[in-house]
User: What shape does this take?
Amino acid sequence: MRKFTFKGGIHPFDGKDLSKDFETKTLEPDKLMVYPLSQHIGAPAKPVVAVGDQVLAGQLIAEAGGFISANIHASVSGTVKAIEARTLATGGKCNSIIIENDEQYTSVEFDAKDPATLSKEEIIERVKAAGVVGMGGAGFPTNVKLSPKDPSKIDTIIVNGAECEPYLTSDYRRLLEDGEEVVKGLKIILSLFDGAKGYIGIEDNKPEAIKHMQELTAGEDRIEVCPLKTKYPQGGERSMINAITGRTLNSSMLPADVGAIVDNVDTVYAVYKAVAEGRPLTERIVTITGDGVNNPGNYRVKLGTSFKKLIEVSGGIKGEPEKYISGGPMMGFAMYSIDVPIVKGSSSLLVFDHDDVADEETTACINCGRCVNGCPSRLLPQTLANLAERGDKEGFAKMHGLECVECGSCSYVCPAKRQLTQSIKSLRRQILADRRNKK
Amino acid sequence: MSEKFHVSANPHVRSKVTTASIMRDVLIALLPAAAFGVYNFGVPALIRIIVGIVCSVAFEGLYEYFMHKKLTIRDCSAAVTGLLIALNIPSTLPIFMEIVGCAFAIIIVKQLFGGLGQNFMNPALAARCFMLIGYTQAMTTFAFDGVTGPTPLAIIKPGSDYAGQGVDLLNMFIGRTGGVIGETSVICLLIGAAYLLVRKVISIKIPAAYIGTFAILIFLFAPGHHFDGMFLAQQICGGGLMLGAFFMATDYVTSPNSPMGQVVFGIILGILTFLFRMYGSNAEGVSYAIIFTNLLVPLIERLTVPKPFGYRKPVKEAK
Assistant: This one.
């Protein structure tokens, strides 16, 4: 079997055995649900409800605040209690709609339609209305992704099921449990681009998922399942496109510039729900795992529920864990509070009993080149980190520092335990901010 | 909630490889060659190996203690330098000379330039060259089986005084010849090199480019030995080429970190070693080739910055 891959990358301990065989259970939502207005890249959504309003499950509570923005819907029925700033998993604060759950779960009527009868514009409109965004973490509005400047140039649609982040199993469960809907979602997307072929990329540490999807797509001549070599960051958009098509792209390009569109498994599932059933994006699968929790597993969570609730329902924590991470261990965010809502991009809650990184002492760089070999963007992380630590923005940009995808591979492999990613990431963000301010 | 959680930037997991584990791997990889050196040259070789390691670690510790620096002897890098110094001297070298060599390597070449990671030359090789200049006689007298004689490389050198004496390629491969303690046995060095390659401590790029370039040049241009396969095999098995190519040229600190840079580095080493061995006054050329090329590393790194993924030539903006 041909295995698709890219150059560079690393092989961290994958930890998926902890939770991969636990069938997804439904999580009872919180009493107070929190809906941040920024769960996506772009402008925050604008609330369309006021404090005191009664809302139904599935009702629009905030509408897209610009071209790149997304609608937000209530996932429960109840009363709007407040619209106020709340802490997010990333550590920042964001204006959020707080809804008191009446525990009736009265839902709005969903307008189901046969996708075959819809025009391309109607499909994209339904994706937009449902507030679908990239659920791999970045949160790019999917309707924008599906409307490139020149749709005839798109020849490759990739369903990203790599799930290269260690420990995460939510996409894996989605493929196993709702594979048919994922295939139907992919067909809907393919119907937008006449000449395009669909690929489902799955890392080869998930043979059951590869087999299942191959069975489901047998006889589909426009869809191919691509087994990918297990390597981090295989699921990064650029690595994925490179592995499957051989094309390369840099930080100033969009996948559409090389004729590709990449969507996460859960996103494609949400596209199906939005287009065929008219259901907005109000829930997702979240993995709870790590050596700090009693019962690792996968949960179907109504967006707006807090991580705290997820921990309580799943069986609580072991002892006094030191680290709580939203997302995977490579690119996830360490949280200082777990009273934080689960949003569209929250794939996992990872709880580590012990924070190994805190014990490690940084020593002198020995120029070993491991960071260079691991970098998927083919940069010189050690040189960039030195420039970043000196604050040399010009030198940093000249050495292509802006091409960094912040994947964390360099810090992971560094034998001197330098905080390479952190240094590079902070200067990179300063430069990007400077450029935005200049405009 | 009253608990305090740890917050830090991603990634939240790290590989188990540390500087110390890498240095330990290098020590392990040098064991076969060191053991063969002791077998070949007897107790004097063992004493020099112990002296080399103990003195190098001691100099590093003492320097850091008196300079109020953080003690770094636990990272094993000084032990590696000490072992390499011992493997690079004849078993007959007076011990005080070896101690002077260790002091030069650790204090002058390594610590005065800022310690681990900052030295611009391989400390062990710099010490070897320092001793070669300072104690030429003692450093170039090789006894084997109690008899002092020329090394195989000196015998086969074009225009050699010893021309006519035979050399046995199999003995050179196994290591039953004269030379410095650790360089004679090709097979032991290759076992160590294979260990480093399997453990991914070194990549094949530098040794392959180095030995490959050297071999091509010898095969095509060696004076008096054009297209001489036997001469080529003797040149590759003789002298410090194996020890140098796999264990010294691959020293992280003093070699380029980019894949392209490593290839360029290896090619320059091959050319210089060819020139030194064929046209120099000495039969050996590996040590000088490596420390000289070490000096070119910043230049090589600057000229071989890799093109980032998805690089496109900048489009000139229309005026």
